[in-house]
Design a protein that fits this description.
The chain is mainly alpha-helical. Helices cover 84% and strands 0% of the residues. The chain has six helices and no strands. 24% of the residues are buried.
């Protein structure tokens, strides 16, 4: 299924192709014509060449419209995906904050929970940049934020005395990666 922008591009490209064929056919006839007839043919060829130039500009504009439409579709899909993925960091950050308020957790967990909560809010509600690079960085930040939330939740639940420090370190690294992707996106 094609989009209206792709239909427009295909139509304009077909028109440019037809003008090129007419131009080549007219040029092929020139050596066999008399002077008066050659002058009329050259005038017609100049008009076709001008029409071809205008059409080539339309082709460029149509190709750009297709590119922009595809980017907008990718941005919309990325926005939905990142919004869904941002639920995990926000939820884990809020739950761990609530647990700290009620004394169930040590306030040191705030060092992990606050950046995770902030990154999740930025992923969910921050404006998405117009370039494909910004879109891919936001997606990477969303995936790493979801991973950081999962690791933080596992660390909060408790995995045992030997695995706990490893999970905390992995959660901290994933949180740092999420924040780094967001900083790179903002540049």
């Amino acid at each position: 299924m094609t989009t209206p922008a792709e239909d427009q591009r295909d139509h304009v490209m077909a028109r440019a192709s037809a003008l090129r064929r007419e131009l080549r056919a007219g040029l092929a006839q020139l050596p066999d014509q008399a002077d008066d007839e050659r002058t009329r043919t050259l005038d017609a060829l100049v008009e076709r060449a001008e029409a071809l130039l205008r059409t080539e500009k339309e082709v460029d504009a149509a190709v750009e419209q297709v590119r922009l439409a595809r980017l907008e579709a990718k941005r919309g899909k990325a926005q939905r995906t990142t919004l869904y993925l941002a639920v995990a960091p926000v939820a884990v950050g809020m739950v761990s904050g609530a647990m700290m308020l009620f004394g169930a957790l040590n306030p040191v967990w705030l060092l992990l929970a606050l950046p995770l909560l902030g990154a999740g809010l930025r992923i969910a509600f921050g404006p998405l940049g117009p370039t494909p690079l910004m879109v891919s960085r936001r997606q990477r930040a969303a995936y790493s934020g979801a991973l950081a939330a999962i690791l933080t939740a596992v660390a909060l639940i408790g995995t045992g005395p030997t695995a706990q420090p490893i999970v905390v370190i992995l959660a901290a690294l994933a949180t740092v990666a999420t924040v780094a992707f967001l900083v790179l996106e903002a540049r």
